[in-house]
């Protein structure tokens, strides 16, 4: 039976580089590895790819997968006709590019690392998910948590090594091992794998994922800031300093304590993600994945309330039924898109001074359309 995943994205460029990816509305099948793909820009504020398309670039990483067995102990797959949404943003100039006949935006300077993350992170994660341990079906919850922790850590470390020039990468079929960006360029990264029984979250930086469960917000990630007691202790143990300079900053420079890239601040800044695994519940409404441009001015509770209301309002006002095979417009779920757009406008209205990136994932299998009879 297909599990419906409905996703939409919205964003506004104002600041630090972040990247987001979402795989949505895939019909899950057993016995094969998942495909995790990126998104392409189709209109201001959102990214999406039509059914059947597998673009070669997109945003880093929200990876949403379909059905799984108990406690995520089965290998996962999404049908090739699953849709993809995502968004990247950051500072720096932009240049135009072409991808599968559609226009996309690529930053020419500050986006180097986040662009690389969107090209590679989902590929590395997909490879890791194709290699489940032989005893996966016998794992305890503790072992399962360790499995996800190891998987995400290998994925993030691999991409960071490639960014930093510590591992070779292929460029036009030829191996290269030079850094892909200046030493002072980096990106946040947050990844989520959603199956029918559990949600696994990996966070590196200060983007955040919040689950709307019933009427309560459940934070699935913790912002990695230098003023966190444990993060400050780790930084100082490595020989670094946290300096108050317009906020707490590593060496007085970076306002987050973990990232991909930023090699000039290593070993104080690390790419190791913090991983959380939580069981799904029947009253799960939606996921909100966003950069700190939203969370700086909108609380978890308000964001969840707004997202729920916007999704419900869209279905109340429209007779379009969204399902696993069609999001209403063939590319993104319009109800989730309305929620993401509204949250972005809300953050701007509240005076957010940072970049704003929002993705909303509707976790309900099916929303009833308006009854016109």
Automatic annotation (TrEMBL):
It catalyses: O-phospho-L-seryl-[protein] + H2O = L-seryl-[protein] + phosphate; O-phospho-L-threonyl-[protein] + H2O = L-threonyl-[protein] + phosphate. GO terms for molecular function: protein serine/threonine phosphatase activity. Residues 72-97 have a biased composition (Basic and acidic residues). It comes from Triticum urartu (Red wild einkorn). InterPro entries: PP2C (IPR015655), PPM-type-like_dom_sf (IPR036457), PPM-type_phosphatase-like_dom (IPR001932). Residues 50-63 have a biased composition (Low complexity). Keywords: Hydrolase, Protein phosphatase. CDD domains: PP2Cc (cd00143). Residues 50-97, 317-336 are annotated as: Disordered. Its EC number is 3.1.3.16. The keyword Chaperone does not apply. Pfam families: PP2C. This is protein-serine/threonine phosphatase. The keyword Phosphoprotein does not apply.
């Amino acid at each position: 039976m297909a599990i419906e995943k409905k996703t939409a994205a919205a964003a506004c460029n104002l600041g630090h580089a972040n990247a987001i990816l979402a795989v949505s509305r895939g019909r899950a099948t057993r016995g094969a590895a998942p495909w995790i793909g990126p998104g392409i820009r189709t209109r201001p504020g959102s990214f999406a790819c039509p059914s059947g398309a597998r673009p070669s670039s997109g945003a880093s990483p929200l990876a949403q997968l379909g059905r799984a067995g108990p406690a995520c102990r089965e290998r996962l797959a999404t049908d090739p006709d699953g849709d993809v949404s995502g968004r990247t943003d950051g500072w720096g100039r932009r240049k135009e590019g072409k991808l599968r006949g559609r226009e996309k935006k690529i930053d020419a300077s500050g986006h180097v690392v986040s662009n690389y993350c969107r090209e590679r992170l989902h590929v590395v994660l997909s490879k890791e998910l194709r290699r489940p341990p032989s005893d996966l079906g016998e794992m305890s919850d503790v072992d399962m948590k360790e499995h996800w922790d190891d998987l995400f850590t290998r994925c993030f470390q691999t991409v960071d090594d490639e960014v930093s020039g510590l591992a070779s990468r292929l460029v036009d079929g030829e191996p290269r091992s030079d850094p892909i960006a200046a030493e002072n360029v980096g990106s946040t990264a947050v990844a989520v794998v959603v199956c029918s029984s559990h949600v696994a979250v990996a966070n590196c930086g200060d983007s955040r994922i919040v689950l709307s469960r019933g009427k309560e917000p459940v934070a699935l990630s913790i912002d990695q800031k230098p003023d966190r007691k444990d993060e400050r202790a780790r930084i100082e143990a490595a020989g670094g300093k946290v300096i108050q300079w317009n906020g707490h900053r590593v060496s007085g420079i970076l306002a987050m304590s973990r990232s991909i890239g930023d090699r000039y601040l290593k070993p104080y800044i690390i790419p190791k993600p913090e991983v959380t695994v939580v069981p799904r519940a029947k009253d799960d409404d939606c996921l909100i994945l966003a950069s700190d441009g939203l969370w700086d001015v909108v609380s978890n509770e308000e964001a969840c309330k707004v997202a729920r209301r916007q999704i419900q309002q869209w279905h109340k006002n429209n007779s379009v039924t969204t399902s696993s095979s069609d999001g209403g417009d063939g590319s993104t779920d319009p109800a989730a898109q309305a929620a993401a757009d509204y949250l972005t406008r809300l953050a701007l209205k509240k005076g957010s001074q940072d970049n704003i990136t929002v993705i909303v994932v509707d976790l309900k299998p099916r929303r009833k359309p308006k009854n016109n009879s």
